[in-house]
Amino acid sequence: MSPLFGRKAPAPGARSVTLIRKPGCHLCDDAQVVVEKVCGDLGVPWEQKDITQDAQLHDLYWEQIPVVLVDGEQHTFWRVNEERLRKALTD
């Protein structure tokens, strides 16, 4: 997993999703709907992080939000494709 989050890599087979967003962002709201649906369907834990509360995330992603990380690696930004996210989590 990325050293950005200071965590160990997930156990084999375990997946995780992080949605990096900011308040008042309609694309972020749209992305959250997709993340919630796919992760809920697959039983994959997910979390959200607010770039306005984290200077490091802001510096990395401020031009790309919303950003979706899968297992700590950038998966997509701006628009989240449900089928693509589902495939990334089941491969």
Automatic annotation (TrEMBL):
Q: Which Pfam families match?
A: Glrx-like
Q: Which InterPro entries match?
A: Glutaredoxin-like (IPR008554), Glutaredoxin-like_YDR286C (IPR052565), Thioredoxin-like_sf (IPR036249)
Q: Which PANTHER family match?
A: GLUTAREDOXIN-LIKE PROTEIN C5ORF63 HOMOLOG (PTHR33558:SF1)
Q: What protein am I looking at?
A: Thioredoxin family protein
Native species of this protein? Streptomyces fuscichromogenes
Higher taxonomy = Bacteria, Bacillati, Actinomycetota, Actinomycetes, Kitasatosporales
